[in-house]
Amino acid sequence: MTALDSTGVRAKRSVAARVASGTAGGVMRVFLILVALLWMVPTFGLLVSSFRDPTDIASTGWWKAFTAPSELTVKSYRTLLENDAITQSLLNTVWITVPATLLVVLIGAMAGYAFAWMDFKGRDWWFVVVVALLVVPVQVALIPLSDLFGKIGIFGDIIGVVLFHVGFGLPFAIFLLRNFFAEIPRELLEAARLDGAGEVRLFTTVVLPLGAPAIASLGIFQFLWVWNDMLVALVFSDARSQPLTVALQQQVRQFGSNIEILAPGAFISMVIPLAVFFAFQRQFVSGVMAGAVK
């Protein structure tokens, strides 16, 4: 390669480098902010609609509220709270999501520690089975588990929905936490054992604090999946145990007569998991970054 060609290559690379550095700076930041704002428009529109009168929602778009702010009212939320079916479904969602999340995190953490640091017969083969369960689709188990839950008398109850979510959430939880716990330095665990720590104390005082970022990330993923689920709840719940997603889906059938319930109900269904995510955002980012480094 001649000196001229080498200089030309360096010039081209320097131009590309300048373009890349420019886009990585203020221009890219502005672009990402615009994209984020664009994605938030439907959410903001839903929020505004939830404070509008049903007749106004049916006649004009939500942006009309800016020209007539006096039409904003909490009447729809009052109607929502007076609807026993919706309020009960919101409680059912909490009773389903919280136990399903806590059980998956607790059992997944214990199993992940066992697969990472405890020696038992067939440990590697059992872990291969757990990994294989990751590819099993939810739809495959709907009919067999419906039959099983019906025979043991929990079909249509909240406990049936919880057990289904726990069963399908555990393979990913065990896989994630086992890989995270396996990166803990062996010397640290051996030092704790020399100080007289048993497996239970070692797990609760050393492993769990070190694995807090990964556990928080898992908890957020599991919470969002269970809270927003409709397929499993639609199959395994009845009118007494249906969560908010199913209740709103049934309200859609009568869209013309209950539009004042759909907007505030949908916003509440969306804002609660968002609040949980932002509350644990720091732990979530720490877990993701720790997993990326490892």
Give a structural overview.
By secondary structure, this protein is mostly helical. The protein is built from 14 helices and no strands. Helix 4 runs antiparallel to helix 10, helix 10 runs antiparallel to helix 13 and helix 10 (212-228) packs across helix 14 (281-293). The radius of gyration is 26 Å and the shape is globular.
* Class per helix and strand makeup: mainly alpha
Counting DSSP H or I runs of 4 or more residues, the number of helices is 14
Please state the overall shape, judged from the principal axes of the Cα atoms.
Answer: globular
Strand share of the residues?
A: under 5%
DSSP strand tally: 0
Helix content: over 70%
Termini Cα gap: 41 Å
Round the Cα radius of gyration to an integer and report it: 26 Å
Low-confidence stretches: none
pLDDT averaged over residues: 81
Topology as a string of helices (H) and strands (E)? HHHHHHHHHHHHHH
Topology:
Blueprint (H helix, E strand, L loop, with lengths): L2 H48 L3 H6 L15 H7 L2 H34 L5 H11 L4 H15 L5 H24 L4 H9 L4 H12 L1 H17 L2 H6 L7 H9 L6 H21 L1 H13 L1
Task: Name the descriptors.
294 residues, mainly alpha, 14 helices, 0% strand
